[in-house]
Design brief:
Blueprint (H helix, E strand, L loop, with lengths): L2 H13 L2 H8 L3 H15 L4 E4 L2 E4 L1 H24 L6 E4 L6 H12 L5 E4 L5 H10 L4 E4 L11 E15 L20 E3 L8 H13 L3 E2 L7 H10 L3 E6 L13 E4 L4 E11 L5 H13 L8 E2 L13
Parallel strand pairs: 3-4, 3-5, 7-8, 7-9, 11-12
Antiparallel strand pairs: 1-2, 5-11, 6-9, 6-10, 6-11
């Protein structure tokens, strides 16, 4: 069915005259008549009866009108779902509680008129990059090792340097410490059940523990983050590592403490990854927002994995 004919029919029904419909659509009256005639031929009914006052809907025309309006609404929604600048910007944040989700929420507050579709894809950086390349998502956030890893037409720029913190209960020896050093983590039971065994996260923690000589316990059943927090709150020696921008909520009775790690701070580098030919204007707004809020010169020494010390640049 020709949507131009449907749109012309609705306009003529609303104005009541082919001449007025032509003026509203910026076409000739003859073009209006041809479109209506073609639609009537397609439907095999008469939609209008000519009267001295203009064009009056027939019984079939009145029956078709609400469906015609719905056809135009559906077409508008379909157009908006894919047209850059009209459809929502689709961004993968990996998990809802991590720093990327917080930054996207701040972006939404700063730009409330920009529609966002926040998703959490399963998989590592390669999986997410493939989704960006395929157009399933507009952008994602992952640690990117080098620009050589990026397929042609995929850009990446480091926008988040997130320091880790030690999360402990009120009975832990470091509960009241203003900060700890990586060297002080040696001998602690740092529990991170479900820690990935491959991918950029696994590589980060493998180099981190090798560099500073402590271990991470990744074993044990993964019930939920809430269960992990409960275990830490009740233990005098259990701890875990969390990103400074990761949001956890717990009951006041847990009295959990987030202890900064300094000298050096342990930084997890995150890049935004996108297709360089993506024309969505909100993507440019998002990148500018993140660039403006990135801390480029920290006020203390930081540690980065060797594979992340070169910031990736967009490909041509």
């Amino acid at each position: 069915m020709d949507l131009n004919g449907v749109r012309t029919f609705v306009t003529a029904a609303d104005t009541g005259r082919f001449q007025d419909a032509a003026a509203e659509l910026s076409i000739t009256q003859q073009a209006v008549s041809k479109r209506i005639a073609a639609l009537e031929k397609y439907l095999d009914v008469r939609l209008f009866a000519r009267t001295a006052r203009g064009a009056e809907l027939t019984i079939d025309g009145r029956a078709f009108l609400p469906h015609a309006r719905e056809l135009l609404r559906v077409a508008e929604r379909a157009d908006a779902s894919v047209r850059p600048g009209r459809r929502a910007l689709r961004v993968d944040v990996v998990a809802r509680r991590v720093v990327m989700a917080t930054l996207l929420q701040n972006f939404h507050r700063a730009h409330p008129t920009i529609a966002l579709d926040i998703v959490t894809l399963e998989g590592d950086a390669e999986t997410a990059i493939a989704a960006v390349e395929a157009g399933t998502i507009d952008a994602t956030f992952h640690a990117v090792r080098t620009r050589q890893q990026l397929p042609h037409g995929i850009g990446a720029a480091r926008v988040i340097d997130e320091p880790h913190e030690l999360l402990v209960g009120p009975g832990h020896p470091f509960a009241d410490a203003p900060a700890v050093t990586p060297a002080q983590l040696a001998g602690l039971r740092i529990w991170m059940p479900g820690l990935p065994t491959h991918g950029e996260v696994a590589d980060y923690f493998a180099e981190l523990t090798d560099t500073f000589g402590f271990t991470i316990d990744g074993l044990g059943p993964v019930f939920s983050k809430e269960a992990l927090l409960e275990e830490i709150a009740d233990s005098p020696n259990l701890a875990t590592l969390v990103g400074a921008g990761t949001r956890y909520l717990w009951p006041d009775s847990y009295d959990l403490r987030r202890v900064p790690i300094r000298d050096p701070a342990l930084v997890y580098p995150l890049s935004i990854i996108w297709r360089t030919d993506n024309p969505h204007p909100a993507l440019t707004e998002l990148r500018s927002h993140l660039d403006a809020r990135r801390t480029v010169r920290p006020d203390h020494e930081i540690w980065l994995p060797t594979w992340a010390q070169r910031i990736p640049r967009p490909t041509d």
